[in-house]
Structure formats: structure tokens, C-alpha cells
Amino acid sequence: MSEVKEMKDEALPHFMELSDAGQFSLGALCAISLKMLFEEDFNDEFKKNTLSMILQYMKQPEQVEEAIKAILDGQGIDDSDPYVDILLKEEILPKTKSAEPLVTDFITMAIKKGNYDARFRVLIKHVSWQLRVTWDTMEEIEGSLAEVLESEQYEVSEDEAKEKAKKARNSKFKRYALIGLATLGGGTIIGLTGGLAAPLVAAGAGAIIGGAGAAALGTTAGVAVIGSLFGVAGAGLAGHKMKRRVGAIEEFMFEPLICGHALQTSGVTKQLHITIAVTGWLTSKVQDFRQPWPSLAESREQYSLKWESKYLLELGKSFEYITSIAVSMAAQEALKFTVLSGLLAAIAWPAALVSAANVIDNPWSVCLHRSNAAGKQLAEVLLSREQGKRPVSLIGYSLGARVIFSCLEELAKRKGCEGIVEDVILLGAPVSGDPKYWQVLTKVVAGKIVNGYCRGDWLLKFLYRTSSVQLRIAGLRPVKWENRRMHNIDLSDVVSGHMDYQNQLTTIMKAVGVRTRDEISKPTKTQSAPVTPSSDKHLLQDPKSQSQSAPVSRSTTVQNINSENLASISEQGHSLPGTKKPNSEESKGSSSTFKSKEDVLNELSRSISNESYAGTYHTEDEPHGESVNKETVVDDITIKEGVKTLCLDEQK
Amino acid sequence: MEEREVLTTLKILIIGESGVGKSSLLLRFTDDTFDPEQAATIGVDFKVKTLAVDGNKAKLAIWDTAGQERFRTLTPSYYRGAQGVILVYDVCSKQSFNKLDAWLNELETFSTKHDMVKMLVGNKIDKEKREVSKDEGLKFARKHHMLFIEASAKTKEGVQCAFEELVEKIIQTPGLWETDKQGMTLGSNSGTNQSSCYCVV
């Protein structure tokens, strides 16, 4: 009965160091997590395969397999705490003071077959979090495993260079025509990073992986595996050329986006996870698609999508124009009485604004259509795995969010769309907020879907003024869809108008929980604080430090926002966007008090958002959204009374 | 066809000290096998078996927990939702009998269904060096309102009977279980034997 079954693969070192109780618990923990994360029918196969792979790597006897599969089927319990407790008491953990070795084994296992499934990454994320391994640490481990893979490939390619060159010649140069081989130089690629990679190895991660993990990977990872993981012969996304047009797109390409050096083009290292950022519009000041994303640090390998710059520039200019009209109207007092009161009814837009509408309507509708087409094109690229078989996260604002949404919709219709996309962040998305259009995304998105919206986004409302869907636009309100993936985040306090999605992008990204540059470069690693705001019982600390650590970690993020805001206040001399209290004096006062364009717009959106707060949508925010709300509201207090108040507030 | 006839799915739990023969009882019941060298259970074992009692078919989902101390923190999580519990001791080990109180305590603490049916099983009666008499077992069972049977996984004696009695009693307890199908009520058989007493073999 308890005979060890014959295993296809060698066991992973750290898994085998666990006691049988630990191995059982790890299996059960994975089963419970899988069941919780991927409850949909179409994920059944993935769940079964993944779980049996995990059990195989731990060489579990049949008896354990049966019990754990029963847990996956939902026969047993879904409380993972006892298993976590057992695992954290395991002997091998004190050696490294954390469950890092287990996470290393997990990632190794996930990429061994040359296909890093987005769902697998979500599972690892979840399990790591339960085992108190921080998100930073997991990324570091991934990073160093990628290093190992790359150096491996480099060696192999030297050995086989001649033969490959011969083969390539024999194929009558046909293959040269393929985009993937643009960088061809003996078949494999990696020459350029082979040298660059070494200094980037994080000291900590190197120690974690050590010999064992890397060796386990090295023995099985062949060139094929690596090529598959990292994309067609390494040319990947940066080498993407539109071979086949889907719809009428004139421009569609990817540019590497290096965190902190938005305009730098070389020096991207291959990683196990990539992020694609999609810009919403261009202006005369922002003519480069990478420009709005200088601080994006969601993953270590990032790309920016360059699409339809001609049309997006036109749109941006009309955005600026219409905004200036709104401002001049405000100066004439017209705005307050017509726009502010009539906005919600959407029937009494000020005449001046409406008469200027043709300036914006045309480019807007052109760009709407083009963003759909670009989304379909993006879906083609992702499906053909030009990025390699590794998880992709997508982030975009305004029309960029629409590109992403259209891409996801297209993916959902296709076969083999599961396990490609991990997280999706949509900001001010001009797409329908009707849950029925979002539900299909379950199949495509493995991780979370964030909808960042602003109730007082008058420009977006204006653009949809003639359409009946106006009040159901995702960029204006939460998407009422009950799913663990869906996170609605109210940005009304951060965003004072549609233009802010570009201008305040860094602050917004922080508010929705996207990693930004100054977060990762922070020297103090708060190892003890979990990455996700967790229910406190998960913290394995003594109560004293527990009560301290959570507020501290939160207040730091708040402080970041604060300092930004403070800076912007001192620079521009206008009030905070989205101040909560409706300042009655100000709104009664004469228009001559308005000092700047921003000021007027702030006032405008504030009043709008105040009005819509009275509306029906107010109550149904996701918990996550509420917490962000709380943070940003707290902002105002802090600015006035200093950080101490905030901490006090938190402790209460 | 067979699926349709199943009246309900019952969750049964087997607990008791390490080495008293919980897994052997289960395997005798589900697979009709016996391994004298039965390895210690890791974590928990899970088996499904359909059983017909009084013309009613019940699907049993049986969780066989590990008795070893290091798995002890896991077992309480399996108690939730169990309709029946089989508490096993070894008739040749006084110590395993003495620990019964502790097991019952834990059961009280963690079980969610308080009218769950409990059965005490004295295992290994084929062995000669008996340390716990039948009377002692019976007394303990009476005191704690449990069903009682002595059995031997090795010789098959009492094994089938133990599970059948337990299931019968569960089915006779109203409110403890639900039908898998809508509209199906307690069968006509269930009303007849309400005055069940402790089963003694």
C-alpha cells in the first residue's frame, strides 16, 4: 500500500528534506490553495496535473496522494492554518530562517518543463505568502533562477554553435526570414546578456539557491526548455514585427521599458515574468510611449506597447484643448451652475463644451476603434507566445486599458488562452462596467483584475455623454462582479480628472498596489511584514511586534503618497486633488479666486464626485478599495497634523 | 443508475491512538485486505465506499487520521462536518484504552455536529494477551453514549458490522444528514427501529 510509486522525475532537494508530516502538509496546502484559487471547471485539468506533479516531486506514497486529491476535490477541509503551522516548524526552515528553499523548489518545478504557467505563479505567490516568504524574496529567487538558465544557455550555445550554423545554412536561408531569428548568430542568442547578467545577481538570492536548486534545474533544462520559456530564439517581444495584421492597425510594436530609465533601450535581462504597459494617449509633451512609466517596477523585464502614435497624439491634443475650454468656462462662472449641477443628468452640458465637442469626438471614436484592433493584435502576439512561455501582467490607463480589455476579450474566445496572463491593472478604462463582459475574463486572467476608477472623471463622462452606457463605464464606477480576481479601487481622491491618469501615474500605481521604483529600491527590507495586507492571524510574530509591524508598513506607503502630494502642493500652489470635505466657502466664492487651470479642474471634479457620492454606488466597494480609500483620506489629516496622527489613527 | 440510488453522503472519521489498527479496519472494510505490516498513516487517508443499510444506499467518505503525535495538530481540522466517528482502541493495550477520554474531549471541542454518532471499537480481539475486557469497553461506551463493538481487522470479525451499525444509527438520527437529491425524505424503513440500543457482539 505504502510503496513508493515510480517517479518520472527526480525529487527536488528541499522538498525531500522535509519530514513526512511536512511533505503531507505542503501537499495539502497546495491542494487547498489550488481549490480556492481556481474553482472554475476549466481549470480542473490544470489543478490535477499541478498537484500530481507536486506530489511526484515529493515522492509521496499512494495513500497520501489519495487523501490530498480528496482535499482538492473539496471533500475535506479548506482551513490551511494547521498545515502552515506544521510547515513552519519544519527542521529545514530554521537553517535559512524562512521557507525560501521551498519556494525555490516550487519555481524550479514550475519552469522545468519550459512552460511557466501564470496560474502556477499565482499558486506559488499564494503559498509563499502563507509560508511568510515576501514577494520581494520570491522575485529575487525567480531572478536568480533566470540567471542560471541564461548562463546555461550560453554554454550550450557555444558547444552547439557550429552545428546549428550548419543546419541554418542547410535550410536555405528560409529561417532567416523569420523574425525570431533576427538576432541569429549560431542559433542561440544570449550573447548579449551572458556577460551583463553576472553582476546583477543579488547576493541574497545567490545564497538561497546555492548549488542544489540550480543543479536540479541545470540537469533538465535544455536549450529547448530555455527557448520555450524566454520566447522564440530570444528576439521575443522586442523583435516583434507585425507579420499578420488583425484589423487596420498602422503601428504596433514593443519597446523595452527599463525601470528608472524609461528611455534606455538596451540592457533588458531575461526574467521569468514580464509586464506590458499600454499608454492611453500622447501629448506634445509626452510623445514617447515609455515616458509615463518611469517608475513602473511590476516586474524586472517590462515592455511598453507602441501603438498608433499618430492618432493618440491627435487625441491627446484634443484632450488638452477641451480641458482648456472647460477652464475658460469655469472662469466665466458658467461652469459652476451648468456643468456642476447638470453633469450627472448628462443633458445640460455647457454649450461651449458641446460646441467644441467635434474637436474631440472624432479622434476619440477613431482611437476607440483602433484600441480594439490593437487589443486583438496583442492577443495574437500573446497567444503565439512571442513573449515566451512565461506569465504576463498587463497595465494600462485610459485607451491603453481598453486595448488590454479588448485583448483579454479576444483571448477568452480562443483555445489555449489559460495560464498566459497573470495580473491585469486597468485605470480609467473606457469600457463597459457590466459584469457580464468581465466574467469571461475568469478564463484568461490567473491573478487579479484591478479596476481603478474615478467617480468625478468629467472628461470620460463627457466622451460618453451621448451613449446610454454612460453610467456603466468601468472607469467611472466599480464593476459589480463577485470574484476573487476582481478588485475595484476608488481613485477619486487621487485622480481629479482623466488627464491625471497620465500626470499622476506614479501616485496612482502606488494607490492600486502596483510596484513602483522607489518601493523596490528601498534599502530596508521589511521581511517580517507580509507583502499583502493580511488577516493578522497569519502573522507568525509575537503579538507585540505584530501590532507594530502592520501599521508601520502601511504608514510608509501613505507617507510616500504624502510627500508626493506635498511636493506638488508646494510646487504648484494649489489645493490637494480630491479633498474630502466640500469646502462650502470656496464653492460660494467668486470665480476670481481660481488661480490656475488645475485648481479649477480640481474644484470641478470635487464637486462632481461629491454629488455622485450621494448616488447609489457608494456602498459596494471591495474591501481592498475601501482600505485604499481610507489611506488616501488619511492623507489629508497627515498633511495637517503630521505622521503621528496617522499612526495613532491606525492603531485605533 | 447506481449514483441515483445513493441516499446521502456521510462523512465518517476514524480516530484513536497510534498503532491500534485504524487503517487496518478501514482497509478491511473498503478493500477487504489485511496487511500485518501496515505502514503508519501519513497525515490522513481517504476512502469512499457505498454501503446499503436497510435498503438505503449511503456513500461513505471515510477519513482515517494518523494517530502519531506529530500529526496530532492536523486531525482537529478533519472533525468539522463529520456525522459519524469511530473511536478505536487496542484490546491488548490498556494505555490506548486510557487515552479514550482525551480523544473524546478533543472530539467535543472540535466537532461541529453535536448529535454526531460515536462508535467505540475495540480492535485486535484475535490476539491473546487481552488487557481490556469487553465489560470495561461496554461500560465506557454506555457512559459516553456511544455504540460499542469489538472487532478484528485481521479475522474480519465485527468490521462490517461496525460500519453498518454506525451508518444505520446516523440515518435514524433526524437532522444529522441531508439527502443528496431534492425531494427525497427519510425512507420508510427508518421509522421502524427508533429504539435502537447499544449493539453488542
From TrEMBL, chain A:
Alphabetical keyword list: Membrane, Transmembrane, Transmembrane helix
InterPro entries documented for this protein: AB_hydrolase_fold, DUF726
Chain spans, region Disordered: 517-633
Transmembrane spans: 176-202, 208-235, 337-360
Chief site of localization: membrane
Pfam families in UniProt: DUF726
One cellular-component annotation, GO: membrane
Domain of life: Eukaryota
Membrane topology value: Multi-pass membrane protein
Keyword Transmembrane helix attached: yes
Ranges of compositional bias, category Basic and acidic residues: 618-633
Compartment(s) where it occurs, according to its Swiss-Prot or TrEMBL record: Membrane
Compositional bias annotation for Polar residues: 523-534, 543-573, 604-613
Family assignment from sequence similarity: Belongs to the TMCO4 family.
Protein name in the entry: Transmembrane and coiled-coil domain-containing protein 4
Native organism: Patella caerulea (Rayed Mediterranean limpet)
Lineage: Eukaryota, Metazoa, Spiralia, Lophotrochozoa, Mollusca
UniProtKB/TrEMBL annotation, chain B:
Keywords, ordered alphabetically: GTP-binding, Hydrolase, Lipoprotein, Nucleotide-binding, Prenylation, Protein transport, Transport
Gene3D superfamilies linked to this entry: P-loop containing nucleotide triphosphate hydrolases
Gene Ontology biological process terms from the UniProt entry: protein transport
Top enzyme class: hydrolase
SUPFAM superfamilies the record matches: P-loop containing nucleoside triphosphate hydrolases
Annotated SMART domains: ARF (SM00177), RAB (SM00175), RAN (SM00176), RAS (SM00173), RHO (SM00174)
Gene Ontology molecular function, alphabetical: G protein activity; GTP binding
Protein name: small monomeric GTPase
Species of the source: Patella caerulea
